[in-house]
Amino acid sequence: MIETSIRIDADKPENAIAVALCTDSRKRDQVWEHLNELEFLAETAGAIVQEKVVQERPRADVGTVIGRGKVQELKEIIEEHEASLVIFDDDLTPAQARNLEKALEVKVLDRSGIILDIFAARARSSEARVQVELAQLEYLLPRLSRMWTHLSKQWGGVGTKGPGETQIETDRRIVRNRITQLKQRLEKVAVQKQTQRKGRENLKRFALAGYTNAGKSTLMNRLTDSGVLVENKLFATLDTTVRKIALPEGREVLLSDTVGFIRKLPAHLVASFRSTLAEIIEADVILHVIDVSHPLFDEHMESVDKTLKSLGADAIPTLLVFNKIDALEFDEDLSELRAQYPDACFVSAAKDIGIDELLNTMTELCDMGTSTLEYFFPWSAAGETSQIYGVGDVLKREDKDDGIYITARIDNKDKHIASERVLTVN
């Protein structure tokens, strides 16, 4: 994974200023909430936000987003706090970032840049590091006109063959070649993971999805005792964890935990992590975990729904799991939520509240789209029983004088298998 100039030195925190544009005064409270989240992102990356600035304009300035006058005011704030970093809540065009850095004379990042920085710091597995590097390069490619000197150090003298545009084009060619290599590596990983998933096709698959810091990993640990890292930081988990769990009736299912989502999640980052997020895409049921104690949890739900739709997972059956109910201040709030979402589960993963209800609901969801069938195989066709074991959940088997009797739960899509051996259907 490359080290880019957007990396923040966690051992020496930088003073930062967070900036947002408000184009609708009615949404000013929402803009401030987004800024608070941006501050949390900055802290996770290792920066200290000294001041938050909101600029109200009918529309973004084409050159600097916030306008020339606000840029001058921002420069004074930077000098006052001795800041070396400015973070914008919305994505900047390469031209805007270049103009702002020239005017402010400090490093300028947008939300995508800070998220990439956090992912780069948290990537541990080789796959995650490849995914992050790919996302970084796709983010940097259109910005090379202001960053080629840094990349020339990274790549050992790149761009020294000629001045100006020759250097930039050389860097672009190197970056494009590297992007191609990384995509090929991820394609191989995707094939390997697909092969692994085929080995467990007879088990129902549940996938945890949710806004970052919603408590997915805590819930994963509660259900599986898997020891997944839990931190009060954004994006604590990047790699997928898959564990087998037993539901109340003894049925085994698979549960996976993946990277959390966030509003304005960079599209190229989602694309880079597609092989990791395949556990969600190919799940039988998605458990959408929501931090119900957050004042804007409904906006978080919307952000997750949009991301799931972008992945093509919006048609997968989804169970809403409202987490952290122990943090609700009033009992009436929980009662209203139960009335509004009657099919949801309400839990506190940290306090072990509502977990039995969740497991029972998961058991019921396992039966969706399945049938319980009783089969008879004469001893002359005993070898055919492997078909049932391969696709179904065998509930009972009796070996009698005339043959083998099997009761199994089968997905409706597989009912055609050994259908001539079916005695009864429940």
Secondary structure elements and pairings:
Layout (H helix, E strand, L loop, with lengths): L13 E9 L5 H18 L1 E10 L11 H14 L3 E4 L5 H11 L2 E4 H12 L3 H15 L7 H7 L10 H34 L5 E7 L5 H9 L16 E6 L5 E6 L9 H6 L1 H8 L3 E7 L5 H15 L6 E6 L7 H10 L4 E2 L8 H12 L3 E9 L6 H7 L1 E7 L3 E9 L10 E4 L1
Parallel strand pairs: 1-2, 1-3, 3-4, 5-7, 5-8, 8-9, 9-10
Antiparallel strand pairs: 6-7, 11-13, 11-14, 12-13
Helix pairs in contact: 1-4, 4-5, 5-7
Describe this protein's structure:
By secondary structure, this protein is an alpha/beta fold. Helices cover 42% and strands 21% of the residues. It contains 14 helices and 14 strands. The strands form three sheets. Strands 6-7-5-8-9-10 form a six-stranded mixed β-sheet, sandwiched between helices. Helix 1 runs parallel beside helix 4 (111-122) and helix 4 (111-122) runs antiparallel to helix 5. The protein starts with 13 loop residues before the first strand and ends with a strand. The model is unreliable at 1-10 and 146-164 (pLDDT under 50).
Total helical elements = 14
- For the secondary structure, the number of strands is 14
Largest sheet: 6 strands, mixed
Would you tell me the structural class of the helices and strands?
alpha/beta
The level of helicity is 40-55%
How far apart the termini lie comes to: 54 Å
| Order of SSEs | EHEHEHEHHHHEHEEHHEHEHEHEHEEE
Strand percentage lies at 15-25%
Can you tell me the overall shape?
elongated
Write down the Rg: 26 Å
Q: In order across it, which strands form the biggest sheet?
A: 6-7-5-8-9-10
Mean pLDDT: 84
Question: In terms of per-residue confidence, which ranges show pLDDT below 50 for 5 or more consecutive residues?
Answer: 1-10, 146-164
